[in-house]
Design goal:
Elements lengths: L21 H12 L2 H6 L1 E7 L2 E6 L14 H20 L5 E10 L7 E7 L6 E9 L5 E11 L2
Length: 153
């Protein structure tokens, strides 16, 4: 069994996340501060663990989609960004990484901020597939995404 993913989670995770070395967590948080999209997406209350990341993603009504709800493209961008953070928890805060592929399935509209939980499915030498799931504030699962990251160094 992969030590990073003892089981994939289909509900928000309230327990402790697998621990990261304090210096690695600090370095990832510092790198996150330098990446403009994290601020633009409104990530808040981030929790980091080995192979996982959780946060709230703010709904900004200025960027709503056609159905007066969280725009799906922004959810996909949040899933991609969260997968990047998951990859850094595995390969190190200064790793050079890139997205290789991504997909998302929309299940319900979100008219609130959403909780995002991203988790490594498997760790490879050069690839990490990550699942990123989103929940509304009432606990309804909004979307499930998968993003694969590649290590470039």
């Amino acid at each position: 069994m992969n030590p990073l993913a003892p089981g994939l989670l289909l509900a928000p995770y309230s327990d402790e996340l697998p621990p990261l070395a304090p210096e690695l967590e600090k370095a990832i948080r510092e790198r996150m501060q330098l990446i403009p999209i994290f601020k633009s997406l409104g990530f808040s209350k981030p929790r980091l663990g080995a192979g996982c990341f959780e946060c709230l993603v703010a709904r900004n009504k200025e960027f709503d989609g056609i159905f007066d709800s969280f725009h799906g493209g922004l959810l996909m961008t949040a899933a991609d960004s969260a997968a990047a953070i998951v990859s850094l928890t595995v390969w190190g805060a200064q790793s050079r990484i890139t997205t290789t592929d991504m997909n998302i399935r929309f299940l319900a509209p979100a008219r609130s901020d959403v909780k995002l939980f991203a988790q490594a499915i498997k760790q490879g030498r050069t690839l990490i597939p990550v699942t990123s799931n989103f929940w509304r504030d009432d606990g309804t699962l909004v979307a499930v995404a998968q993003v694969t990251y590649m290590r470039l160094d």
